[in-house]
Design goal:
4-stranded mixed sheet, alpha+beta, single chain, 15 helices, 32% helix, binds phosphoenolpyruvate, UDP-n-acetylglucosamine1-carboxyvinyl-transferase, Chain, cell division, transferase, 430 residues, 2 domains, binds uridine-diphosphate-N-acetylglucosamine
Length: 430
């Protein structure tokens, strides 16, 4: 079993190139199945979720070549819309194959989505979309089947704002007959990126980035080339890392507008932020101020930045409160931070942090990708050594977590734990 060793690193300084967004890439790769010609995607990160998509793609006949960040996809050879349940369940965004293959072939059989298992993550809004477009949905224990003789445009009001179901609705409706209106749609950059990509192939999607999206169905999508947007969540975490001990970190190749609420919070706690056209520099200070974080859907403060922000707030003198309104129970990292000596309490669905207390290294476990970033940051700020297990979760989101953090001076290394050492470590931590 792998683990990451993090050592107290003092201020972090340097420049990091930000890779393409995981959450956009997962949508774009499934969206590419809709094309009737060759698609080239640039900037796709080489992460575990993408490797699984490549496997799923190959199983169903999709020809896919990946070299560096470039992925060339030939969807003309897809011969099946039955997706291995185990593979679909090993990551969250497999539901995008449901939207795209339903749209293209009229039927899809697919495992229930997996992914970061921090809370229950319903797919009722995805199902609502498929049904509204005229499909039947049959749910089984660990897979579901969606089928439609014909998909017809519809008016769909989301009960709650969801980026996944908004993207899936675009995938399912893009080839449907007539007009689809999505109301209460998510406005995330990943929604816009998917709409821009589909439009480049010939789709007619209007209004992405607002709460009302209109899709005029077309009968054919051509091939084309598209570059995925930069990962705003990785960028945000690196900017936060600058705040740990008064460092200075520049993130390159980003879209600063995608990080508005994050930058505002960093400034609110006393950090200085400078934005260029496609780069941001954050300057830390040793006098961080406590604050209140409430996550929300874009453009509010992202739930995926909540955990790294919690690590940073351990350094801010005074009482901070963190509430995750998107996933109220996404707080597993709190118990782990306490193992490092953090003074942080859970009351109802908020974390109450008393910042400015010293942290001591120890063994901790990352239960999802952002919990991993949080623990890594806390480990870099703690005295001594911190050992982080659950590396497989971190690698779902980061192509080279060690290399990228090292480039700003973080003392990190990857190690292998034998089965016996793992048992000893579990016994010790009980
Ligand atoms: C692969 C991917 O892009 N993952 C991101 C995506 O997940 P994902 O797309 O799955 O999350 P959603 O945007 O759909 O979820 C937003 C909210 O809607 C709720 N909901 C969602 C769908 C549904 O059918 N019913 C329902 O009630 C969820 O429980 C949550 O409270 O957005 C989340 C919220 O920004 C991020 O944390 C994830 O990193
Ligand atoms: C929750 C996340 O991912 P996923 O939706 O793929 O599980 C995340 O990226 O923080």
């Amino acid at each position: 079993m792998k683990y990451i060793q993090a050592e107290y690193s003092g201020p972090l300084n340097g420049t990091v190139h930000i890779p393409g967004a995981k959450n956009s890439s997962l949508a774009l790769l499934a969206a590419a199945c809709l094309a009737d010609n060759i698609v080239t995607l640039e900037g796709i990160p080489f992460i575990d979720d993408v490797r699984i998509i490549a496997e799923i793609g190959r199983d169903i006949g999709l020809k896919l070549q990946q070299e560096g960040g470039q992925v060339i996809i030939d969807p003309r050879w897809i011969h099946s819309s039955v997706i291995d349940p185990g593979k679909a369940s090993s990551y969250r965004a497999s539901y995008y194959f449901a939207g795209s293959l339903l749209s293209k072939f009229g039927k899809v059989t697919i495992g229930l989505p997996g992914g970061d298992d921090f809370v229950s993550r319903p797919i009722d809004q995805h199902i609502k979309v498929f049904k509204a477009l005229g499909a039947q949905v049959h749910l089984f224990k660990d897979y579901y089947v969606v089928e439609a003789a014909e998909l017809k445009g519809a008016d769909i009001f989301f009960d709650t704002i969801t980026s996944g179901a908004t993207i899936n609705a675009m995938l399912a409706a893009v080839l449907a007959k007539g007009r689809t209106n999505l109301h209460n749609a998510a406005m995330d950059p990943e929604v816009c990126d998917t709409a821009n990509f589909l439009n480049r192939l010939g789709a007619r999607i209007y209004g992405a980035g607002t709460e009302h999206i209109r899709i005029e169905g077309v009968s054919y999508l051509d091939g084309g080339t598209h570059t995925v947007i930069p990962d705003r969540l990785i960028a945000g975490a690196f900017l936060m890392a600058a705040g740990l001990h008064g460092g200075q970190v520049t993130v390159m190749d980003v879209i600063p507008e995608h990080l508005g609420s994050c930058l505002a919070k960093l400034q609110e706690i006393g950090m200085h932020v400078e934005c260029g056209d496609n780069q941001i520099t954050a300057y830390g200070t040793n006098l961080l101020k406590a604050t209140r974080i409430r996550t929300g859907m874009y453009p509010s403060f992202a739930t995926d930045l909540q955990q790294p922000m919690t690590a940073l707030l351990l350094q801010a003198k005074g009482k901070s409160i963190v509430t995750d309104r998107i996933y109220p129970k996404r707080l597993a990292h709190v118990a782990q931070l306490r193992r490092l000596g953090a003074e942080i309490e859970l009351r109802q669905e908020s974390a109450f942090i008393t910042g400015g207390r010293p942290l001591q290294g120890g063994w901790v476990h990352a239960s999802d990708v952002r919990a991993g970033t949080c623990l890594l940051m806390a480990g870099l700020a703690a005295e001594g050594y911190t050992y982080i297990t659950g590396v497989e979760h971190i690698e779902r989101g980061y192509e080279d977590v060690i290399g990228s953090f090292r480039s700003i001076g973080a003392k990190l290394s990857m190690h292998e734990l034998s089965a016996q050492e793992h048992l000893d470590q579990m016994r010790e931590s009980q």
